[in-house]
Write a sequence for this structure.
């Protein structure tokens, strides 16, 4: 029996995708072998990875002068790969710091070159995205890095901030990639860990403009060079074939259910249902500023920590998993990614109303 899955990541996957995967793990395409048993050099897997790229290109209307790469190591490895490949000696990389993950990206970049914090939300404890008018860029940064959605604090950039002319915008979109339309042409490089909206953990999708692919020095480790993945079509070594297969199936599901515009409408409706309740509640309260609220991760608190613990414990008994907030901030968090159905959010709101009546 499936339960209501509000885990922050790995997160909920579409049921049709899981059902198809059950069959394909045993025997894919009548080949007599499961997807995990096929060679990554074989025609069947070459078709799978090519179709996954094609689906991503179609959904996001990715221009021809961008490469779509599948890389291991999670978004955390991209924290290092980006500066290793793009931050040349004597140049400065600017970071917009709006939460824990952008802090970690900045910390990693400092190991490879000069960095500059052009914006920080630390003063508000990252409860809101600061006004872009507060951004103070360095002189001719080599790139500008931001994290589009902050899972721990429940905030999200509504639109891309302005960047200096000709400067590539680099984005960690791990927790909201393909949850809404995206104009890829506004970015130089986009990366996203798959385990929120794209598939299982173990694979990252990187979308990088051609002119940035060759920037990295050839002296860095082979598997940390974007040019290697671009040249070898992400098949230089044995990739996580099952993870890439699942990303392709999830992308197909997004397309079949209306594409990114329809996905955005569903995500906005789900989030509105939960935020509307929080706004009228005298018991629960949302923690993110209204203008910065994430449509992916809704963070909220109860009057006391004891009540929060009781709420999470009772929610588990009722088949609602993953509602405990991140250990660094406490409280509760409902992650309502693409594959989280509206019925799960409706069940959560109904339980919250009941819990409030019983404990106020």
């Amino acid at each position: 029996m499936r339960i209501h899955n509000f885990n922050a990541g790995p997160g909920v996957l579409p049921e049709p995708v899981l059902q198809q995967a059950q069959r394909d793990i045993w025997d894919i395409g009548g080949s007599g072998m499961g997807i995990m048993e096929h060679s990554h050099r074989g025609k069947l897997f070459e078709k799978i990875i090519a179709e996954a790229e094609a689906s991503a290109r179609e959904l996001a209307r990715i221009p021809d002068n961008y490469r779509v790469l599948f890389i291991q190591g999670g978004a955390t490895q991209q924290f290092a790969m980006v500066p290793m490949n793009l931050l040349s000696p004597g140049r400065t990389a600017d970071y917009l710091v709006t939460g824990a993950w952008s802090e970690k990206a900045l910390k990693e970049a400092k190991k490879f070159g000069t960095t500059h914090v052009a914006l920080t939300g630390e003063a508000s404890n990252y409860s809101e995205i600061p006004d872009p008018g507060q951004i103070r860029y360095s002189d001719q940064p080599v790139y500008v890095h931001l994290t589009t959605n902050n899972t721990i604090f429940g905030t999200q950039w509504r639109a891309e901030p302005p960047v200096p002319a000709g400067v590539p915008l680099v984005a960690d979109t791990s927790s909201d990639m393909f949850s809404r339309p995206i104009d890829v042409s506004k970015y130089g490089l986009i990366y996203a860990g798959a385990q929120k909206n794209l598939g299982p953990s173990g694979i990252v999708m990187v979308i990088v403009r051609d002119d940035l692919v060759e920037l990295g020095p050839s002296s860095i480790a082979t598997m940390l060079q974007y040019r290697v993945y671009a040249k070898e079509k992400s098949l230089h070594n044995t990739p996580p074939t099952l993870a890439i297969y699942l990303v392709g199936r999830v992308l197909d599901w997004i397309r079949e259910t209306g594409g990114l515009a329809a996905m955005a409408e569903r995500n906005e409706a789900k989030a509105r249902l939960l935020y509307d309740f929080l706004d009228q509640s005298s018991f629960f309260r949302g923690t993110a500023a209204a203008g910065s609220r994430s449509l992916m991760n809704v963070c909220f608190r109860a009057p006391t920590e004891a009540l929060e613990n009781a709420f999470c414990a009772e929610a588990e008994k009722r088949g609602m998993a993953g509602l405990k907030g991140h250990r660094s901030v406490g409280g509760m968090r409902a992650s309502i990614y693409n594959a989280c159905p509206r019925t799960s959010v409706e069940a959560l709101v109904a339980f919250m109303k009941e819990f409030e009546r019983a404990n106020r």
Summary: The mean pLDDT is 97. The radius of gyration is 21 Å.
